[in-house]
Design a protein that fits this description.
This protein is 69% helix and 8% strand. It is α+β, with helices and mostly antiparallel strands. Strands 1-2-3-5-4 form a five-stranded mixed sheet.
């Protein structure tokens, strides 16, 4: 039960202050009724009491202002309501039970305001208590030492107890606040460390991407040099050798002859055929390393590739910026592999190649009206294509239901 009441009081502080003010007012009503003053004095007495308890109700909204009001009323009570001598005290300003509001407000200042403010309020309360005891009538009677001591201990002890309790609450608040600040600082430090690690990882990833791009471009450049060396060196020499052997064979046939001439012609003819076949294989190898048609761009190269296929191929290339040589080579070889698969396995009567781009990626779509059913078989051609495009962070998608049509989508970066 007590725990429920405490929980309610913490959850409803304004209502709790209102209840406390009502209790103080209730304990002071009896003093109003028991007073000896007239009606105007009773009304003024009640008004002073209501103002005192109202400061308790508003102590959370403005604790300093509420304490100043209550202290002013207390000073007026000491000056005019606590008098020793021939002049009687002023009834409306006599101390009441509602003066406990000053102690409550001192507790509030100690708990919710800086310590210098609460210490100043404490000194003011102790000074007021001393002056009130000094002006208290019984303090001037004979043998009043015990009464004065009890009053001083009671009022001073109550005042000090209120300040100590409030200051201890403030200490707990400060500790909780500092703990929250430290936790927040630790969290911010951890976030900064995490951001630094993320930034370092992003920088590392960027460096790796740049290195990979350079490696891919350098590899493509080396392959192009190899292709040109084969085209300009070995192919030329083999072509010259084939021509020489062909001329020798023709001369021997025109010259006729017997004996070993027939055998010589046979050997030279065999050498000529081998040279022609080697030259064809070398040309195919050079085209596989780097198709010469790519020197004119991807669109002309794909156009030449489409002309070599036995089925009609619709070609659409809409690119704003030419990709790097390595990306063009990957796109060309992927298209060549897909067209070969279409003619061999799909039974399609028509195919289409579409290429478009955006500021960051190039999208190539190859479709056919064949039987469908294409899938990524381990070690198959499509699996090899996916591995090829993944070397430059590309993606390969397959949509090939049974009965067709088949759509292969390849997404490549504009630059490796």
């Amino acid at each position: 039960m007590l725990e429920k009441v405490t929980t309610w009081l913490r959850a409803h502080p304004r209502e709790a202050d209102g209840l406390l003010a009502a209790v103080l007012l209730a304990f002071s009503v009896g003093q109003v009724a028991a007073g000896t003053g007239g009606v105007p004095e009773r009304v003024l007495f009640f008004t002073v009491t209501v103002v005192l308890v109202a400061t308790v109700a508003e102590r959370r909204r403005g604790p300093v202002a509420a304490f100043v009001v209550a202290a002013a009323i207390g000073a007026a009570q000491i000056a005019f309501g606590v008098q020793y001598g021939a002049q009687p005290p002023f009834f409306a300003l006599q101390p009441t039970n509602a003066d406990v509001a000053i102690v409550v407000l001192l507790y509030t200042l100690a708990a919710h305001r800086p310590r210098p403010v609460s210490i100043a309020a404490l000194m003011l309360c102790l000074l007021g208590s001393a002056v009130a005891i000094a002006r208290w009538g019984p303090a001037h009677h004979a043998y009043a030492g015990d009464s004065v001591l009890v009053a001083a201990v009671g009022m001073g002890g109550l005042t000090l107890a209120a300040w100590v309790l409030g200051d201890s609450v403030a200490y707990r608040y400060r500790r909780a606040h500092y703990a929250v600040v430290e936790a927040r600082a630790a969290q911010m430090e951890a976030e900064r460390d995490a951001q630094a690690r993320i930034a370092a990882a992003a920088e590392r990833a960027r460096e790796l991407q740049e290195r990979r791009a350079r490696a891919v471009d350098q590899s493509a450049a080396r392959l192009r040099r190899i292709e040109r060396d084969l085209h300009d060196g070995a192919q030329v020499r083999l072509a010259a050798l084939a021509m020489v052997l062909g001329e020798v064979t023709e001369n021997l046939e025109h010259a006729g002859g017997t004996g070993d001439g027939g055998h010589t012609r046979m050997l030279i003819s065999a050498a000529h055929r081998n040279a022609v076949e080697t030259l064809a294989e070398l040309r195919d190898l050079a085209r596989g390393i780097h198709p010469p048609a790519l020197d004119r761009g991807l669109a002309p190269a794909l156009g030449s590739l489409a002309d070599t296929v036995s089925i009609p191929v619709d070609l659409s290339v809409r690119t704003c910026e030419r990709p790097s040589a390595a990306i063009e080579a990957i796109a060309y070889f992927c298209a060549a592999e897909l067209l070969a698969n279409i003619t061999k396995h799909s039974g399609a009567s028509r195919a289409a190649i579409s290429i478009s781009d955006d500021p960051a990626r190039m999208l190539m779509t190859v479709t056919d009206n064949g039987s469908g059913g294409a899938w990524l078989a381990p070690g198959g051609g499509l699996a090899g294509l996916r591995e090829r495009v993944q070397t430059v962070d590309g993606q390969l998608g397959i949509d090939s239901p049974a009965g067709g049509p088949t759509t292969i989508t390849i997404s490549l970066p504009g630059h490796a």
